[in-house]
Design goal:
- This protein is mostly beta strands and about 260 residues long.
- The chain is built from three helices and 14 strands.
- Strands 1, 2, 3, 4, 5, 6, 7, 8, 9, 10, 11, 12, 13 and 14 form a 14-stranded mixed β-sheet that branches.
- Strand 7 and strand 8 form a beta hairpin.
- The longest helix has 6 residues.
- The chain is globular.
Length: about 260
């Protein structure tokens, strides 16, 4: 948009991506096939003072992705675990950090095949005078936490033996001509049949069910409200070690890289 010059920001009125394919590979501990790009610039970029780090102001409008595909391969696992996303269709009305509106926005939408399982999210766009509100509802049923924890690219301080996650989130994104964009989360979460172990295999936490209802999160205001929390049949086992510390605090992610020995 020509207003990019006036507002001194990157303003795009529409972005379309068709048949996008992304391949992500975990090569080692926190090392991905794209990690080299994240290190461009070297250590000199860390020496820039906070006053020199001006934020990048932008407004990306009508973002539409059609028939996207994502492959994730864990090269560190014995069986080279692979996750796939196919038929990814995504429509986002607006994302930005400046007050800016256009006349017409696309309806929010998300659908895909995640490891051949169908996933859909419904959205709604509410136009008001001098403002817009986008709502997106996400639902996840029966996610196997042990499976995803085993293939997590981030090393965990505990072992997840068993667990199921059900999630329902309503996301609201509000933007107007005279106020900063506002991002709100509301929803419910339920954990069931949880079995967490210390890295050595010792029992840490067993729980039949944990549910959180009426939770909300305001990103801009940094306010969190957990609403109602219900816990059923919880059993926590923590041991005080000889050094006085609790066993839980001693947990470290497995497969730590050995520090190089000093020649001095």
């Amino acid at each position: 948009s020509p207003k990019s010059v006036i507002r001194q920001a990157i303003i795009l009125r529409r972005i379309e991506l068709d048949d996008l394919f992304v391949n992500i590979e975990l090569l080692g501990r926190e090392d991905f096939n794209f990690s080299d790009f994240t290190r461009l610039g070297g250590k000199d970029s860390e020496d820039i003072t906070a006053e020199e780090k001006d934020p990048l102001y932008f407004s990306f409008n009508n973002i539409v992705l059609t028939n996207g595909s994502i492959d994730f391969t864990d090269q560190t696992s014995e069986d080279k675990t692979r996750h796939q996303i196919r038929k990814l269709d995504l429509s986002i009305p607006v994302v930005g950090n400046i007050p800016y509106l256009i006349e017409n926005y696309v309806e929010p939408k998300l659908s895909m095949l995640l490891n051949n399982a169908e996933f859909r999210a419904t959205g709604e766009l509410k136009p008001f005078k001098n403002s817009h509100e986008t709502k997106l509802s996400l639902t996840l049923d029966g996610a196997d936490l042990a499976y995803y924890a085993e293939h997590s690219p981030i090393l965990l301080p505990v072992e997840v033996r068993e667990g199921t996650l059900d999630l329902k989130i309503d996301l609201s994104y509000r933007i107007s001509e005279n106020a900063e964009p506002q991002l709100l989360f509301e929803g419910e979460m339920a954990l069931s049949d949880i079995d967490l172990r210390e890295l050595g295999g010792r029992e840490l936490l067993r729980m039949s069910a944990l549910s959180i209802a009426g939770a909300s999160f305001d990103l801009q205001q940094r306010q969190v409200n957990l609403g109602t929390i219900q816990l059923s049949n919880g059993d926590i086992k923590v041991i005080r070690l000889a050094n006085g510390r609790l066993s839980l605090l001693q947990q470290q992610p497995v497969a730590e890289r050995a520090e190089p020995e000093s020649n001095s």
